[in-house]
Amino acid sequence: MNKKKNKSHIPIRMNLLFFAVFILFSILILRLGVVQIVNGEEFTKQVRKTEETPVNKNVPRGEILDRNYQSIVYNVPLKAITYTPPKNPKPKEMLEIAEKLASIIEMNEEDFKKVTDRDKRDFWLLTNNNGEDKITKEEYKKFQDGKLTNAELDDLKRERITDEELSTIDLEVAAIYRKMASAYALSEVIIKNKNVTDEEFAIVSENLSQLPGVDVTTDWQREYAYDHTLKTVLGSVTNNDEGLPESDLYYYLSRDYNLNDRVGKSYIEKRYESVLHGKKAKSKMVTDNNGNVLGTEYIHEGESGKDLILTIDMELQTKVEEIIEKELLASIKRPRTETLDRAFVVLMNPNTGEILSLAGKQYNRETGKMEDFALGTYTQTFEPGSTVKGATILTGYQLGAIQPGTRFYDAPLQLGGQIKKSWTNMGWVDDLKALERSSNVYMFYTALNIGKGRYVPGSPYIGISDATEPMNKMRYYFSQFGLGVETGIDLPNEESGLKNKPDNPGLLLDYAIGQYDTVTPLQLAQYVSTIANGGYRMKPQIVKEIREPQADAALGPIIEEIKPQILNRIDMKDEWIKRVQQGFYQVFHGSQGTASYYFSNESYNAAGKTGTAETFYYGPNKKLWGTKVYNLTLIGYAPYDQPEVAMSIVVPWAYYGVSPSGHSPNNVIGQQVLRAYFELKEKRMKNDLEKNEDKKDETDEVNEQEEENSEEQ
User: Fold this and answer.
1) CA-based nearest residue to 54, from 215, 277, 281
2) Which of 340, 399, 550, 643 is deepest in the core (most CB within 10 A)?
3) Is the peptide bond preceding residue 564 cis, with omega within 30 degrees of 0?
């Protein structure tokens, strides 16, 4: 009876079990449906996010060309082998890849030199069980007890590696591993991009499946068409090992740069980094759940950097540098020129502010080599001497200290025990003759009138107790020409010059003849340009255009054209400016002009002003520090009636003591530079004329042929 009852319960229990299982499966299916249908898209995005990581790749930098579209800085394509580490790189796995690569490629000698002693010791530890046998049990016990840090333990291991043990490492593998280990997760690093052979490139390409993270690509190397011309102004680019400069690290990282990206690190390359860098190629790095790189898919090929077109005329630039070098080498052979080692020339279009030549050379007396020092044209400052007398005259007009035609008697001024004079006694001179003959005394009287002082022969008192106010007035008007202030050139690290405190009223007189404050050669060029063009201070510019890059040699379309910019119009009247222009003309052409010997017979009809400034030497030759030396300067423009080029020349520390006979390198350089400019202009006009005639002849031939064909028909 009981057995029958027990049997009757079994089917019911089975049914209940099946029913419960059915309910559970139904809930599971419902849940899966919710996950797939309702939340499926969100989960898919998360899966892709973890498995597909965007990676940026470098593209070639933009090129730099001169105003005639001649290439100055360009890129040379290079075959390259790269490595991109996974999210969680494992040293042992990287070592295996490095060993495989080492069996295929040969690293360059410079790569071996970069493997430091520390790198070698770390590599030895990696390949020898982390150097566990280099520490004692007691030391390991101290480590476990917290008495030794992990870093201290590693230091002990490194110290105990013998030279014999270090000699056993495979330097090829170590050099490759060093580069791989320097890369950041999912950030591409170049393993080799110099002297990659076709065979190496092909074998690596064929074995990419066995080399996770390794890839082959085309890289670039920055090349400069001229070794020593304008190099200091063009700047440079960091290499693969340098990467981002530490000083600008956060700036670049915030702009989506990678740590090992190559960037401009000085001057034009740095100033126009955002233009030259281009848009990076974007790829999608596919990784597995462990972060291992499975492959790469390109999303965007990227765009090369934009091309910069400079205002510089490189053919003219090289000629100017040749002239400087020749004259420097000739001058340093003269007596009392041991302090002479450099010279600067700036050529500028006075109507637009475009810099045609920015040239500087420095002679290294130890090596006997001539070095590029173009950047000194706006980073080095010197007392300009009498070249500023045009500004002194115009300031005198403006402040009512003198007027056109005012005359002073040029004879030495006796200020107590000090004598201040011109290079010769000139007698009565007016403003024009003062410029032509470079009268210091005329400028002294002008400055005295500006400061409302007076000259009492033999007395040190000049009626000015404090020269601060009158000097500030003069500095204000001088700054309108660009003297003593930044010119605004689109280059970094420009110097504005040294402004000394006038603690002695007599220093106001020195300021009037350019022997107190210091200026740059570029400021002098801007100053003379302002006088040449009728009173407009133009912003100097070294970049003329920004263009799209082109795959072939053709020029890309213009993205931006840099327009001339007027910084200010000087306060002086037009007739006053023309009066000083006339004085500058007499300097170059007058019977007593200080530069007429060099310029009066030149066909380009120039005007300008010479300058000599007494100063003290504190250059490279420390034995001569404190010696009284002379800066030789020259400013000018041509043609006089329609100026198209303005120039400034500075030859600092040209000599000491008495001037060597016939020693005027400033005038020699100026004469030959302007001659070179106009000869080059004439040659180009002739070439253009011949090309036009050839085109005309070709057109005439085509027309004649068409006429003959028409008659035959």
Assistant:
1) 281
2) 340
3) no
Residue 566 DSSP class: E
Q: β-strands 64-65, 307-310: how paired?
A: parallel
Cα(276)–Cα(235) distance, integer angstroms: 13
Q: Residue 465: phi, psi to the nearest 5?
A: -80, -30
Place of tokens 């107790």: 465
pLDDT at 478: 98
Task: State both tokens at 62.
Answer: 């933009």
Note the Cα 689 to chain centre separation in Å.
37
Instruction: Name the DSSP class of 463.
Output: S
Q: Residue 4: which pLDDT band, with cuts at 50, 70 and 90?
A: very low
DSSP designation for 35: I
Q: Which of the listed ranges 118-127, 274-283, 391-400 does the model predict with the highest average pLDDT?
A: 391-400
pLDDT at 472: 95
Q: Which of 89-103, 134-148, 635-649 has the lowest mean pLDDT?
A: 134-148
Give residues with Cβ within 8 angstroms of 70, minimum separation 6: 225, 314, 315
- 10 Å CB burial of residue 110 (0-12, 13-18, 19+) is exposed
How many other CB atoms are there within 10 angstroms of residue 126's CB atom? Answer: 18
Question: What one-character DSSP code corresponds to residue 354?
Answer: B
Q: What is the dihedral of CA 482, 484, 486, 488, to 10 degrees?
A: 10
Angle at 93 between CA 87 and CA 96, to 5 degrees: 140
Q: Please, how many CA atoms are within 13 Å of residue 94, restricted to the half-sphere of its CB?
A: 24
8 Å CB contact between 392 and 445: no
* 70 or 32, which is more confident: 70
List helix spans (H) across 353-430: 376-379, 389-398
Q: Determine contact, residues 653/421, Cβ cutoff 8 Å.
A: no
Q: Which residues form the catalytic set?
A: 386
DSSP 702: H
Q: Give the pLDDT of residue 3.
A: 44
**Which residue in the block uniquely carries the two structure tokens 């404090």?**
466
pTM: 0.83
Which pLDDT tens digit goes with each residue over 491-517?
A: 999 999 999 888 888 999 999 999 999
